[in-house]
Amino acid sequence: MTSQDQMAPKRPYLKLEEMILNMGPQHPATHGVLRLVLHLNGEMIVKVDPVLGYLHRGLEKLAENRTYYQFLAMLSRLDYLANIFMEWPLVRCIEGLMEIEVPRRAEYLRIIVAELNRITSHQMALGDFMLNLGAGTPMFWVFRDRERIVDLLELLTGQRMMYNYMRVGGVRYDIPEGFEAECRSFLAGFPAKIDEYEKLITDNEIFLARTLGVGIIERDEAIDYGLTGPNLRASGVSWDLRKDDAYSAYNDFDFGIPIGKHGDCFDRYKCRVEEMRQSLRIIEQALDNLPEGPVNVKLPPMLRPPAGEKYRAVEGPRGEWGNFLVSNGGLRPYRLKMRDPNFVAISTLPRILPGYKIADMIAIGGSMDFMLGGADR
Amino acid sequence: MTPLQHYLFLAVALFSIGAWGVLARRNIILVIMCIELMLNGINIALIAFSNYSLDGAGRGQVFVFFIFAVAAAEVAIGLAITIALYRLRERMSVDELHEMKG
Amino acid sequence: MGEFNQLAFWIIAFTVISCAIGVVTFKNLIHSAISMVCCFTGVAGVYVLLRAELAAAAQVLIYVGAISILILFAIMLTRHRSGDLKIFFHRQSWAAIPLMLLVGIVFTGVLASAHYMNSSSEAMNPDTRGIADILFNDYAFPFEVLSLVLLVAIVGAVLLASKEKQL
Amino acid sequence: MALAITMAVIFASGVVFPYSMRRLWGFVGDRHGPNRVGPLGLLQPFADFIKLVTKEDITPTKANRWVFLLAPVIGFATPILIQAVIPYSETYTIANLNVGLLYIAAVSAFGVLGILLAGWSANNKYTLVGGLRAGAQMISYEIPLLLTLIIVAMLADSMSLNDVVVQQADVWYIVIQPMAFIIFLVAGVAELNRTPFDLPEAESELVGGYMTEYGGIRFALFAGLMEWGNVTVWGLTTATLFLGGWRGPFLSGPIWLLLKAVIMGLIIIWFFATFPRLQVDQLMAFAWKILIPISILNLGVTGLFIVLWPDNYLLPTAIFSWGATLVFIGVFTFVVKKILLGKRLGMHKSMDYEPWMLRKPAEPIPTRRQVGP
Asked: Into how many domains does chain B fold?
């Protein structure tokens, strides 16, 4: 035994014991089936390896074997909290290739549905974030109010989750009777609910201590990584496709884009809360100025977009969701590539997490609000 | 009433078992634990004497409290040294301690 | 009452000694530590039999509450990854048993041959207030010195175990 | 008899608290909570209990079997042991120790032991981290708890819990020492591993902390009986030390005592429904940098007053303690948040409506800052 001991190398420095912790794929705080291989020193994170693919369904490949109409129905399975935004870019790609003019009323309806969906998504982000930080009550408040929005969406689209509302050249249904009154009563009541969330969360010292200055993503770094959506805007970059691309009818509306300064968890949280308020303003204006007219255009029973390629993106609640469609003029897409903000957000984790503790990692993951349904496709 | 000797025999037994452990085991933490056993044996003897002494002032108990404090200090320092040694050598054997330079 | 006392003593003594042997002989450190906790608790029981409730409470508080936890912490922090100690005893450990027996027999012999005044069954240990009187009047200076010792121990332990320091 | 009473109280707490927690949390979260099993869902805890008991008892293969089985028992023993010294009425205490306060402090150490061993024995990294966290946290918060116990002992001039209650005939100690009560409350919540100090079982970080690998009846023992039994015992202790114990008009002593204990438990549930969770370093910093200095100051000043005015120290102590409490609360609500937020709060207030419509279309799209030549 002594000879063994002498063979052991003498270390000039104290040894740091490294522990490898497999967090996920089944873990309450990984937002789905994400697996994070954490190299820990004590509770300090030294290295992170995100492992994806536990929810991979091969949707990009499936698209090549289905007609456009068939595939549109599968899209809302991607990011199951922001379903409308999954359908929108492909519809826009096809419309762009076929040069279809979408009726004004349809664009407004699309925006109403999208903004309602954005609010539900941000609500879920908020509830999940707080659940990650150990507070369960915001989750229930969020679900209480989300129920009303989901009811509204059900009135409009007939579905509560997989809306399948977008059509090439418009939307599926016109607004039903009573929707406007319901929606207006919701709009009147919801700002108070947001204030309620903020009263519970934003002023809490523990919440501040957990989020201020935690998980900082610098402005340049955020741009380099290709972050989009609230995660990017929290870092102080004013980039929002609704303004910068001004697709659909977003130019008609007066709304603000909340911009953070420090890019920490608190800014990301705050940006989302403010975006909910702005979405309410958009919906209100859209209801006020809803144009008359058809909500759809007449299209052939089989879509054959002309050969060519198109990239169209929309500003989803988690960032830029874009589709790159290559058509060879056939019934099916030749190639469909999806650009997903969640994947980008996860790819920043190995860069930001080292140096933080496990508890910080949970807070950062919650504030980034990635959704594995989108990242794995 | 249990006679004083019985308590003292118990104390001696505890003390010698502790001594056995100190001499026989290799692991530093276990050696520290055995030292605690020895101290406990001494404490039993002190309290027994204190209870059976005729002056009734309980001076023995005061010594016990002193021993408590010293034992706590000893464990704190001992374990700190152990952990430092473990970080340095990855071993926890008494044989490691034959040289005193870090 | 005397009978009960006697019985309780034998039960506790048996527990204490078997647990103490367990501490020395168990191969798993955690098992040793649990055994040690049982032993300490038993010793606290002995104190109760000797009517030293304060010492018993302090025994549980300090040994079970602090020292055992510290030792468990140390064991858990120093998991043996490489080169686990497969050999638990020294090669010379056989010599320890006769040595222990020698110590035990000598002490026991001395104690057995001594002459005691076995006092009556009334409690001679003072109550809490009496101990406080002694501790803070007669032994005030050692008490202060002791606090200094503890302070030094705390600072030393923190220094030794802190990560930043190079040894 | 004595054992029957303690067991009855512990089991009752395992029924009352889970139910009231769900109902109260449901109330806070604007929903119903359990309301299906029995009238008002009152039988829900029993249904849960039956479900847990009939589940398979699983021991992980690589667990250290005996320690794994022993740990919940050690943990469960703690609340039962502590209950022995609580005076239920003027005449009835299961064991009237003259060092009751010290006994409480001593026995509560066994709880840490059970949790540490549970964390270690399951041979799982989450449980190990949870167990170590629990150990560090409970030892740290034991210190302010003990210092507060000493204050009570000084005020009552006795360490027997019976005397403490007897001394509170005229005025409860919460009136004389609100500071000590607050420290006891905060440190107690930390001792019980409850929100906002529930890091050892932080379900979003460590899955279930030290009880991750437990299931079935052992989980019921840990999560139901031990945790809520500890809450009850802590409530009983708080009621005895600060709220006059069994004293109260109209009703009999034990009912008052249990009522006060349940109210303390409901306060813990209220915390649970409101707060997020702290982080390990913040938790430790809170204990060592805030709670312990404050309790030492409180202890020192109380002792000084008792020495200065041996006959009527209650009034100055009360004045000091109320002042300190107000300062403490004021510092926490204003200064701490100021420090935390710094100038950022102002920034965020103005952030709300960035005038995007005013941005000129020609303004360049943000790009990366040029690096290098």
From this structure: 1
Average pLDDT over chain A reads 84
pLDDT of residue A351: 86
Chain D touched by C58 (CB under 8 Å): yes
Look up the domain containing B9 and give its range.
4-100
**ipTM value > 0.85:** no
Same domain, C138 and C60: no
Beta bridge partners of A39: A20, A47
C-alpha dihedral sign at A182, A184, A186, A188: negative
Of C52, C85, C118, the residue at which a domain comes to its end is C85
Q: Does any domain span residue D279?
A: yes
Q: What is the DSSP letter of A165?
A: -
Structural domain of residue C161, as residue ranges?
128-167
> Do D209 and D133 touch, CB atoms closer than 8 A?
yes
Write the residue in A132, A206, A243 that is nearest to D356 by C-beta.
Answer: A243
Residue A48: both structure tokens together: 């992170």
Query: Which H/E stretch holds residue A335?
Result: strand A335-339
Q: How many domains does chain C have?
A: 2
User: What domain count does chain D have?
Assistant: 1
C107, B16: Cβ pair inside 8 Å?
yes
Residue D53 has pLDDT above 50, yes or no: yes
CB contact under 8 A, A11 and B88: yes
Residue B52 sits in a domain whose CATH number is: 1.10.287.3510
In a domain, D202, yes or no: yes
Given CB atoms, is A6 within the 8 Å cutoff of chain C? no
Distance from CA of C94 to the nearest CA of D (A): 29
Among A1, A234, B55, which Cα is nearest to C134's? B55
| Residue with the larger pLDDT of the pair C161 and A244 | A244
Per-residue pLDDT tens for A175-221? Answer: 888 888 888 999 998 988 888 888 888 878 788 888 887 888 888 88
Chain C closest-CA separation from residue D112 CA (Å): 8
Residue A13: pLDDT over 50: no
- Mutate one of C40, C53, C70, C127 to test the D interface: name it (highest D CB count within 10 A): C53
CB contact under 8 A, C29 and B47: no
pLDDT digits (tens, 9 = 90+) for A96-134: 888 888 888 898 989 999 999 999 999 998 888 888 888
Q: Which helix (H) or strand (E) holds A107?
A: helix A104-132
C163 in contact with A, Cβ within 8 Å = yes
Task: Pick A60 or D62 by higher pLDDT.
Answer: A60
Give the span between the Cα atoms of C38 and C20, in whole angstroms.
9
Strands A19-23 and A308-316: unpaired
* Residue C153 covered by a domain: yes
**C133 and C81, same structural domain?**
no
Which of C15, C16, C17, C135 would you mutate first to test chain B, the one with the most B CBs within 10 A?
A: C16
Tell me, yes or no, whether C81 and C137 share the same domain: no
Q: Mapping DSSP to helix (H, G, I), strand (E, B) and coil, where does residue D85 land?
A: coil
User: Is C2 a member of any domain?
Assistant: yes
Chain C nearest-CA distance from D338, in A, is 32
Instruction: Tell me the per-residue pLDDT of D235-266, one tens digit each, with 9 for 90 and over.
Output: 888 988 888 878 778 777 788 888 888 888 88
3 state SS for A169-208: CEECCCCCCCHHHHHHHHHHHHHHHHHHHHHHHCCCHHHH
Would you call D204 and A223 a contact, using CB atoms and an 8 Å cutoff? no
Of A203, A257, A266, the CB nearest to D354: A257
Question: With 60 as the cut, is the pLDDT of residue C121 above it?
Answer: no
Asked whether residue C18 falls in the same domain as residue C76, the answer is: yes
Looking at A131-135, A290-294, C96-100, which range is the least confident one?
Answer: C96-100
Tokens of C46: 């002995």
d(CA B25, CA C100): 13
Does residue D116 sit within a domain? yes
Write out chain D residues lying below 8 Å of A262, CB-based. Answer: 344
| CA nearest to C128, candidates B20, A192, D98, B97 | D98
